[in-house]
């Protein structure tokens, strides 16, 4: 599934949605909400939000579900982001709230650690405009050399295991950067916490939504990780098995 997206020849429109000649809706950056969980990310948040602003010409809405005790929420507000305060309860609790908060038709998730390339937002939007329901950033396609080796191996194994259980090859189940049509995130009940990222790929795929993996670069993290690799890895493995079985016998 992981191939570069065919250039459609149509640049995403910057303004909000317009109909093309076939009557299909063509989304622009004004239709986009970029959402993230933020937990003590003051080393990265300024860069991440400035990148989103620059790439989308200030048109994308940004939503941060924040559990920080540092200056992260102040910096987010200075950049015009909407900040939803939440006690820190883990990645998935924050990101579930973040994906369900916006009213805009396209929701993009990212981490607030400067690892994901916001330069790829136009390509993600282009793939949605080409008809995909979910566009998933595949970090492993280009090697993800900046990812800690243990995490890289774990992420490859998660993708392999999920592929076997789903009967469909996927390459990166745990990526934090994806675009979703809002109806996808609203029509499914999300149950996982650390494993939410895998769940957000597996359930739509197993329900027949059009999902596309799009290769992305992955940069070294700014600031401290919020994930314990062993404990987090075990939780993700458990989520993958549980979610695949639930979807298979649904
Ligand atoms: N609000 C909130 N955000 C969280 C929580 N846990 C993690 N996050 C955020 O979720 C995102 C993902 O966490 P990361 O620490 O980047 O986890 P990771 O991507 O698996 O690991 P590395 O990027 O390699 O450190 C980051 O933006 C965190 O700030 C939480 O309990 N509450
Ligand atoms: Mg991260």
From TrEMBL:
SUPFAM superfamilies reported in the protein's UniProt record: Nucleotide-diphospho-sugar transferases (SSF53448)
InterPro entries recorded: DPhHxTase, Glyco_trans_2-like, Glycosyltransferase_2, Nucleotide-diphossugar_trans
Region: Disordered, residue numbers: 1-28
Top-rank lineage group of the source organism: Archaea
Residue ranges of domain Glycosyltransferase 2-like in the record: 33-187
CDD domains linked to this entry: DPM_DPG-synthase_like
Pfam families: Glycos_transf_2
Protein name: Glycosyltransferase family 2 protein
């Amino acid at each position: 599934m992981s191939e570069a997206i065919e250039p459609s020849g149509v640049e995403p429109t910057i303004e909000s949605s317009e109909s093309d000649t076939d009557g299909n809706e063509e989304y622009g950056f004004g239709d986009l909400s970029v959402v993230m969980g933020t937990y003590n990310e003051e080393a990265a948040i300024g860069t991440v939000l400035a990148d989103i602003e620059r790439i989308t010409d200030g048109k994308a809405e940004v939503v941060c579900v924040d559990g920080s005790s540092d200056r992260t929420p102040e910096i987010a507000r200075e950049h015009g982001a909407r900040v939803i305060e939440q006690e820190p309860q883990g990645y998935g609790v924050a990101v579930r709230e973040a994906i369900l908060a916006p009213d805009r038709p396209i929701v993009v998730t990212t981490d607030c650690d400067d690892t994901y390339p916001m330069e790829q937002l136009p390509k993600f939007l282009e793939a949605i405009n080409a008809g995909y329901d979910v566009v998933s950033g595949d970090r492993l396609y280009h090697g993800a050399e900046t990812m800690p080796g243990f995490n890289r191996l774990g992420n490859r194994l998660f993708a392999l295991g999920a592929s076997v259980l789903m009967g469909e090859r996927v390459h990166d189940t745990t990526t934090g950067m994806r675009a979703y049509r809002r109806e996808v995130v609203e029509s499914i009940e999300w149950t996982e916490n650390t494993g939410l990222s895998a769940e957000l790929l597996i359930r739509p795929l197993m329900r027949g939504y059009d999902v596309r993996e799009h290769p992305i670069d992955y940069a070294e993290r700014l600031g401290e990780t919020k994930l314990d690799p062993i404990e987090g890895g075990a939780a993700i493995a458990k989520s993958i098995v549980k979610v695949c079985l639930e979807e298979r016998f649904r």
